[in-house]
UniProtKB/TrEMBL annotation, chains A, B:
Residues 189-434 form the TauD/TfdA-like domain. One of its GO terms (molecular function) is metal ion binding. Residues 76-157 form the Gamma-butyrobetaine hydroxylase-like N-terminal domain. Keywords: Carnitine biosynthesis, Dioxygenase, Iron, Metal-binding, Oxidoreductase. GO terms for cellular component: mitochondrion. This is Gamma-butyrobetaine dioxygenase. Its cofactor is L-ascorbate; Fe(2+). It comes from the Eukaryota.
Length: 456, 456
């Protein structure tokens, strides 16, 4: 069993603790402006749910906090409450949103951090019988026509306001703005052991990876377990039919071109997964000492952005044309599954339907010959794909990993390739594993809250 | 290392085997119709790549096969080759597609089942110097202006044709058509041991799950390992911060409402994952014997379809409005990770950008209070969500699992809930784990090919 903690909820939870049981009758005040100076301090009364535990310490009221998060006025309109905060900013709060997000123990489980209330439990047209600003602006109390009573803390309302700044703040906690790059990019490099053992270093690594899509970790232990150790410190290893982790070295009769010494064109890994592995950890255990075996890297999101700007027709063709990617085979070594046949039909450049943002880029020799298009659309699509690949090549950087280094890449975004080498002249041994972004983003947010770091 | 096998490639591969080394000069025939009756039998000559292994047995020519898959004529046009097959059907094949999909050992690795050719290796405007229908229609040979020579087998061309039927066939291999359902649905039930030990039964289970989104497996062993055993026989268990598998039973101070005896509203699991778990295996180890503890089930895709048809305004609001789902907590038991903070911003009904098909439905008490909307859009959104939930309830079926039964659900599609029960009166113990669709679909395709089953 886990106990969940959220700062906003905690603050609000104070309102529902013991010692606040003095009921005070409220007067109906439709559309009436109430200021903290007009109302007497008032506490809220609720049925204390059996599931409610007043286990969170109640901080002493702080005048600073009070001023920063205070409510100056609360205006009850027809469908919304307009709240003006002490800092002069104001926001409308729709009644149905307020009712749905009542933080009382009957409506919200502060252990599970989960709404207990379902939509059936309240009327869509419920509205306030009265609204009171309490404790000199510390919170606002709503007495609903239906009989329910809700208290909302000033700080919680400010955090959840429908203002551009509050909305931006949550958006940047969801995802950090990506920094697109081209040939001038200097590959970010960090120490593996620092990242493994320092919260600040791990946060820095995860933020850089989210922004740039690539980081090189230096001085990792030269053993296959190193990729698993770091992934397990962040989230879960994502297994595929190639195993939880797998060596990349030259072999005869290889199941993948990766297992040869041939040049690999610019690609991302396993694009034939609906849930493409989010992050690649490619660990160079032994680098080939002769010529070749370098990695080319390009920012697929930058390439998409470039095409959108300078070649809008080709960009549109690449976003509007789904392509079959596939992988099929029979395993012959321990870490692989016995048989697999994976297919997706997805464009080279994938846009989010609502925002239009590029959210995934796919490119691989593992395009299937099947193409679900009218034949007259095929030649223009090839021309666009050719332009995409030329741009990827032109905008790429080249790096040869040292033995012990680990190349970490956003596989939804990065295109990577390898120059050929002659395996007759020496060994080249990489080990690889995957982690999904769900785990990495979760860890980044946990560390941000732990270290109190706000990011744009 | 794995060796990959594909029927279409195998057939084509015969053309590149030993004993077919007799070079024959070809004549330029732009835009000229060539019929099998006009050409002498001809074999193809190629540089035999060191990576090429003639390890596939060459079947003896079959007159039936010849007739069914034969090429009657090949017309070379400006940008495409028009091929008419022996069955009277014809298709255009764009030259760039033909060149990109040359199956010769220089262009294609039949071990890796992967294109070796990159776009840099050929010219976009390459076109045939000559086209010859060979071996009485068994294959067609293209001599390119650039000097390269390609052979395409009739059957391979027919399979990969740009005709509606060939395109439909590949589309249905990718994904089986879903059968939407409402209250009249009879829950599909299959024997756990049959599915575990029979290829046909496993295929039947996977196909039914893909079509209906739900199957009950009966007579599973009443032990927690049962969910892992069946998932591992299909693909990989998907771990989450709740562990690889986890018990669902009533507890004090629960981290999730699931861990109480309270009613659970209709929801899907973990909608706050970008990569939401695809399939839920919910195993009833011990059912509560008193009143309650039943599961309500509804087809979210049917509900979306219903709203689209009868309430298009609300449907559009639900597809166009992203909502924050979240889960945050600190683990206190072994199978959970230490801390997590997962968030996505995603609509209740998710449409594919290109097809407009509904591909995912999300609903949960774990909607965050944050809502990234202008306040005037909030009330209409709540009205639409209310309609969605009412429709889910109205269109649902109720089922109480017996001890030993396993409820398997498509978590991208199904909404499920639980009626409350009184945990003071007895035990209720479920065990749960997840599998992604990437693994399940792969297994279905492998079994289809193994058993020779074609599905619509």
């Amino acid at each position: 069993m886990s106990r969940r903690v959220l700062q906003g909820v905690l603050s609000s939870a104070r309102l529902w603790g013991k010692g606040r049981q003095n009921a005070v009758g409220l007067v109906a005040v439709p559309s009436q402006r109430l200021t903290s100076s007009l109302t007497a301090p008032l506490s809220c009364t609720f049925i204390t749910s059996h599931a409610w535990h007043n286990s969170h310490p109640t901080p002493a009221p702080s005048p600073t906090h009070h001023n920063a998060a205070g409510i100056r006025t609360a205006d009850a309109g027809k469908e919304m409450l307009e709240i003006t905060f002490a800092d002069g900013n104001s926001s409308f709060f729709p009644y149905c949103w307020l009712r749905d997000n009542c933080q009382c123990p009957q409506c919200f489980d502060s252990d599970a951090l989960c709404r207990k209330l379902t939509l059936e439990d309240w009327q869509h047209n419920d509205c306030p019988r009265s609204v009171q600003v309490e404790e000199g602006g510390r919170h606002v109390e709503v007495q609903w026509v239906s009989g329910h009573r809700s208290c909302y803390e000033a700080q919680w309302l400010q955090q959840h306001a429908f203002t551009p700044s509050a909305r931006d703040s949550q958006r940047s906690f969801l995802a950090i703005k990506k920094e697109l790059w081209s040939t001038e990019m200097e590959l970010p490099r960090m120490d593996y052991n620092g990242v493994m053992h320092g919260d600040k270093e791990l946060l820095d690594f995860l933020v850089t990876l989210e922004k740039k899509g690539v980081v090189v970790l230096t001085d990792a232990p030269r053993e296959p377990e190193a990729v698993l150790t770091i992934i397990n410190s962040i989230g879960y290893v994502k297994p595929t039919h190639y195993g939880t982790n797998y060596p990349i070295r030259s072999k005869a009769s290889a199941s993948s071109l990766a297992y040869t010494d041939q040049r690999l064109g610019m690609h991302n890994d396993l694009p034939y997964f609906q849930y493409v592995p989010g992050i690649i950890f490619l660990h160079c255990i032994t680098q080939f000492e002769g010529k070749g075996g370098e990695n080319d890297l390009a920012d697929g999101f930058h390439v998409a952005d470039y095409l959108k700007q300078f070649h809008p027709t080709e960009y549109r063709i690449l976003t509007d044309t789904p392509v079959y990617f596939w992988d099929k085979g029979v395993a012959q070594v321990k870490q692989e599954t016995t048989e697999y046949h994976k297919i997706v039909n997805i464009p080279i450049i994938v846009e989010d339907r609502l925002s239009g943002d590029v959210v995934r880029v796919n490119n691989s020799q593992l395009r299937n010959s099947y193409l679900d298009l009218p034949p007259e659309q095929v030649t223009p699509w090839y021309a666009a794909l050719r332009l995409f690949n030329q741009t990827v090549d032109q905008q790429s950087i080249r790096n040869k990993l040292n033995s012990g280094e680990m190349l970490v890449m956003d596989n939804t975004r990065l295109m990577h390739g390898r120059t050929g080498y002659d395996s007759a002249l020496g060994e080249r041994h990489m080990n690889q594993a995957y982690l999904d972004w769900d785990g990495a983003l979760s860890r980044r947010r946990v560390l941000q809250e732990k270290l109190g770091v706000t990011l744009e």
